[in-house]
Every structure is written in C-alpha cells, then in structure tokens.
Write a structure and sequence with these properties.
Helix content: 25-40%
CATH class of the largest domain: Alpha Beta
Number of domains: 2
Oligomer: single chain
Number of strands: 19
Shape: globular
CATH topology of the largest domain: Purple Acid Phosphatase, chain A, domain 2
CATH superfamily of the largest domain: Metallo-dependent phosphatases
CATH architecture of the largest domain: 4-Layer Sandwich
Structural class: alpha/beta
Strand content: 15-25%
Radius of gyration: 32 Å
Length: 388
C-alpha cells in the first residue's frame, strides 16, 4: 500500500505542476501582450503629443528652427551705374572694393540703372535740362562680373535710354559676361546656389519692361517662374523719387507725370501669387521693410553706386546691402542688413555707425507698425514673434 501510494501521489503532483506551468506560460504571455500594448500606445501618444506641440508652436511662419535643406544665399543692392560716358571713374575696375566683403554671395543681384552701349542718340533732346540718359561701355559688364554680380535687372526707366540699339548692346554685354538679365518684356532671370534654382521676376511701371501696372500679366510671369525654379524673387522698380519719397504710402504714386504704381499693393499681390521675397529700388532713397504672410518685403535699397549719376545729399547718401538666406522651399532662414554710405561722387563704403539701419528701422515702424521688419544692432533681420 505504501509502495503504491507514492507513484499515485507523484502522478497527481505532476499533473498539478503541469497545469500550473501552463497557466504560468499563458499568464506571462498575457502580461507581455499587455506591456507591448501599453508601449505601443505610449509611442502613439508621444507621437501625437509631439505633433500637437508642433502644430501649436509660436514659431513665426517661415522662420526655420532647424538647418534648412539646400538653402540659397543672395545679396541685393539698389540702383547701380558707373558714371556716364565719357564721364567715367578712373578706378572703375575696383569701384566696389570697399564693400566687396559684404557684397560677396553665391547669388548677387543689382539694378543696372542704365545701359552698356557705345550707341549715340539718347532719349534726351539736345535742349533738355531735366532728362537723364546713362550709358557705360559694354566692357563694364566684366567689372560687374568680377564683383560677383550674376543677376542684373533692366526693368527700370533707364534701360531704354539709348533706344533699341542700347537695349540690344546691353543684353549682348551681359550675356558675354555670363550675367543673367531680367526685366525686359517676358524676361525672367535665373541663377542657382548649389542644388536650388532661383527665378528673378523683375517689374517696372512701363510697357517696355515687365509691367507692374498690369497685375494679371505679372501673375502669369510669377506663376511661370514658379514652375521653373524652387525659389521666386520679385524685384520692383516702383514709387516716387527723391528725399521726400522715403515713405511707403499704400497709395498710387507718381513722378514727373508718370504712374509709378502702388508699391505696397503690388508687393503683397506678388507674394499672394507665389513670390518668396520682394526687393525694390527706384525712389533713390531707402524705404522700410515689412513682413507679409511670413515673407520679407524690402521697399527700396536706394542707390548702391554711381559716379556723379545721383544726388548724395542728406538721406540720399544712405544705402545698404541686403543679404537673405531662403530654404529651397522659399521659406525665410535669415537676413542681414549692412549699412553703407555714398561719398560725394557716389562710391559706396561700409558705415560702422549704421545710419542706414537706424533710418530704415524708423521708416519700417512708422509705415508698418507690428508688421515691420526690424534690423537688430548686429545687422540681423528676424521675423517678429507673430509675423503678420
């Protein structure tokens, strides 16, 4: 009896142990499933929280907080001429040397205020006392090229100073120097920085250029540019002229009987149509800067260089170099404003007292209020906390 009881007792223990082991395995499996489920749930919750945090962040529109993909760096200057044949500077080949360090960038843009031609017979009559026609030798295209300019604008009131021949000679000279020209009717200029292509669509209030008074045609050109390049920059030669024309009025402006457009409306419309940045010159004096829909608008960079071409009295001696970095999707990355001073003949030099920046900040605040694009003491330009 005792001998038979041991195996029966052992057999019962084995079945019970087996049962408990099976229950233990099932319990462990169930616990593992629960833990994995909790982990996955937390993962999704974390992702959702992160997504919600990103969507509700106060970072201003288009102000990047991470390294931009394939960014483009560009510098912009205003009206530029190097005298008027035969009145030319003796140091033309080194005319930009004092500002070269601030000017240098993969893409350099300037407004060519005049022509590159040896043609005679300007638009001005022999007895005219209030008409200006500018031309430099075609060889001066190489001076601009040596200074780094690879995009020059011809949408202005001086591109046709010497008629069709002057226009043709200018186009040939720029092409020979591998400088992209923009602004003639239907003409878009292109440049690249690394892998990113930039289109420059330039306008002035004339039918002999891309016409900023024709907003429907302007939209077509901007839309076309958007299909050809990742980044679109619009330049406008707009507004009245002179020291009394420093403010952006938001109204139609005129000068010597010409309709010079409504710079503010045109700039806003250009961005609505797809432009990523708007820059300007034409008033021959600096104007303020504005944020609109997260994009920067500069309303005038004044005169960058001349040789007895322009007045340099008072505020008209102030000018600047605007440096802008945009991501390949057109969003704003960074900006910098370098203040310059023009000497008595119109040659630019860096101004360590930053008079131009002070002047522009005052104009921006007065004209645009909370939408003003302000320049910091170090020259940087950053969007406000909530860019309009």
């Amino acid at each position: 009896m005792e001998m038979s009881s041991t195996p029966r007792h052992g057999r019962h223990v084995s079945q019970r142990t087996f049962l408990w082991r099976r229950l233990g395995v099932l319990g462990a499996l169930l616990l593992t499933i629960i833990l994995v489920g909790i982990g996955v749930s937390n993962l999704f919750d974390s992702s959702s929280t992160s997504s919600q945090s990103t969507s509700t962040t106060s970072t201003p529109p288009h102000a990047t907080t991470t390294k931009a993909t394939n960014p483009v760096t560009m510098t912009f200057v205003g009206d530029t001429a190097l005298g008027n044949t035969p009145n030319l500077p003796a140091n033309a080949s080194s005319y930009f040397s004092d500002v070269q360090s601030a000017l240098s960038a993969p893409i350099e843009f300037g407004n060519l205020e005049g022509t590159l031609t040896d043609a005679g017979g300007s638009k001005c009559g022999t007895s005219s006392s209030n008409c200006y026609a500018f031309h430099n030798p075609p060889a001066y295209a190489q001076i601009f090229k040596s200074a780094g300019f690879n995009v020059l604008n011809s949408a202005n009131n001086h591109s046709h100073d010497f008629g069709a021949q002057g226009v043709s000679d200018t186009t040939a000279a720029l092409g020979g120097a591998a400088i992209s020209q923009g602004g003639l009717p239907g003409q878009i200029a292109y440049a690249t920085d690394g892998k990113t292509k930039v289109a420059f669509v330039n306008f002035a209030p004339y039918s002999s250029t891309n016409n900023l008074l024709d907003t429907a045609a302007a939209k077509v050109l901007i839309t076309q540019a958007k299909t050809q390049a990742q980044v679109v920059v619009v330049y406008m030669h707009a507004g009245a002229e002179g020291s009394s024309a420093s403010h952006v009025t938001g109204q139609e402006e005129s000068y010597v009987g010409e309709d010079r457009g409504n710079a503010k409306v045109f700039a806003h419309t250009a961005i609505d149509d797809g432009a990523d940045l708007v820059v300007a010159s034409g008033p021959h004096v600096l104007r303020g800067m504005e944020w609109y829909q997260g994009h920067l608008i500069n309303y005038s960079l004044a005169n960058f260089a001349g040789y007895q071409n322009f007045s340099t009295s008072g505020s008209m001696s102030l000018t600047a170099i605007l440096r802008v970095e945009l991501a390949s999707n057109g969003s704003f990355v960074s900006g910098h404003f370098t203040s310059l001073l023009l000497n008595s003949v119109g040659q630019p030099a860096i101004d360590s007292t930053n008079q131009a920046a002070t002047f522009v900040n005052a104009l921006s605040t007065q004209d645009f209020g909370a939408a003003a694009a302000l320049i910091k003491p170090d020259g940087s330009i950053t969007p406000p906390p909530a860019a309009p």
